[in-house]
């Protein structure tokens, strides 16, 4: 889409002392923006149109938002993209069209902040058997080894490689009681983190009492038979390693 003539002429105004009007018009034509030198001079000699005056007004308003002040600071509205900025100006009583805001922001390269997309490391299988919810979103414990929560994620090593890390946290103490790393996602390293936590508690002289709940939101189907085979119930596990 061709920019407005007023914007093209403003572009030429900024650079004509260095390059000249005719060379700039030729360069613009190469890039698909057609304007004749006589059109530029006619525009300069004519009185500013209502659209040009309105564009100037909106540009000054937006510059006060997107350009940093003397201290290098900008208002919170500088995070807005064109749609939110248009809505903001309308709330301020400025009857500007959305396309006008988009055009001026695009010309001056004013952009809002784009939210980062969260990476999902665990995707539940909707067809898998659902374990009973033993915690009921009450993540509190009155003593150690009553409730463990677990998950796994990936972390970057100093060498630049990424590895998966499974960890088990005691809700009462808020500390990691077991963890394990692996180059790939598989049931074994998740199970190892659980067993490490149980063995560590035994070595510390605190064998697990019956009824420790192990809650997790991952649902590796292949984890269930092996863990449940040791007397542990469900993926949201009711753990009894002392049995």
Describe this structure in words.
This protein has helices at residues 5-19, 21-30, 37-45, 50-66, 82-91, 98-107, 187-203, 223-228, and strands at 147-156, 162-170, 175-182, 212-216, 237-239. It has 243 residues and is of the alpha+beta class. It folds into two domains: 5-107, no CATH class; 147-239. Strand 2 (162-170) and strand 3 form a beta hairpin. Helices cover 39% and strands 14% of the residues. It is built from eight helices and five strands. Strands 3-2-1-4-5 form a five-stranded mixed beta sheet.
Following the backbone from N to C, one meets helices and strands in this order, namely HHHHHHEEEHEHE
Please report the number of helical segments: 8
What is the percent of helical residues? 25-40%
Sheet of most strands: 5 strands, mixed
Radius of gyration from the alpha-carbon trace, in angstroms = 32 Å
Q: In total, how many beta strands?
A: 5
Query: What's the arrangement of strands in the largest beta sheet?
Result: 3-2-1-4-5
User: What proportion strand?
Assistant: 5-15%
Structural class determined from secondary elements: alpha+beta
Please, what is the average pLDDT?
A: 80
Shape from CA axes? Answer: elongated
Number of domains: 2
What's the N-to-C terminus distance?
Answer: 74 Å
Ranges where pLDDT stays below 50 over 5 or more residues in a row are 220-243
Domain Integrase catalytic: 143-217
InterPro entries: HTH-like_dom, Integrase_cat-core, RNaseH-like_sf, RNaseH_sf, Transposase_IS3/IS150/IS904
Domain HTH-like: 79-115
Protein name: Integrase core domain protein
